[in-house]
Amino acid sequence: MAADEEDDEAPDRRPSRGKAAGKGSDAASGSSDAPSGSRESDESGTERAARRVSAPRAMRYAAEQLQELLGRAPESVSAVQPTADGWMADVEVLELERVPTTSSVMASYRVTLDEEGELMSYERTRRYTKGQIGQS
């Protein structure tokens, strides 16, 4: 093989690391191309154990992956907490926009992520009007 052909090949090819990294979520946020908790192989091919992603990254992944599934941009992440298997987050989404905006319909979704930030499940736990205060 000629020396100029070697330069064209990437010396460190890594496989895709899942939905969160595969859809470009990190590129938009300016961070690396994979969740910090990804499993990676070292030079000998041995797989290193996954680390839990940070709480801010879990919040971002929960919002991004829910948006991908619902087709609606989340308004906010109102809660995030670690679990034995990863993370659980509550994400607020505008479901129906109305005038006046205080009568718009919001929904709260409970999102479960694994340790690496991949969405495992979600469910709508509550619907309410935007102007509503407190639980009902």
Throw out a few tags for this protein.
single chain, 136 residues, alpha+beta, 4 strands, 23% helix, elongated, disordered N terminus
Structure commentary:
The protein is an alpha+beta fold and 136 residues long. It contains 4 helices and 4 strands; from the N terminus they run ααααββββ. The protein has helices at 3-8, 19-22, 25-29, 55-70, and strands at 74-83, 86-96, 105-114, 119-129. The protein has a 4-stranded antiparallel β-sheet. The N and C termini lie far apart (70 Å).
Helix content: 10-25%
Kindly state the number of beta strands: 4
The helix-and-strand class reads alpha+beta
Shape: elongated
Taking the alpha carbons of the first and last residues, their distance comes to: 70 Å
Overall pLDDT level:
76
Using only CA atoms, what is the Rg?
A: 19 Å
**Tally of helical runs:** 4
Outline:
With about 140 residues, the protein is α+β, with helices and mostly antiparallel strands. It has helices spanning about 5-10, 20, 25-30, 55-70, and strands spanning about 75-85, 85-95, 105-115, 120-130.
Layout of SSEs?
Layout: H1 3-8, H2 19-22, H3 25-29, H4 55-70, E1 74-83, E2 86-96, E3 105-114, E4 119-129
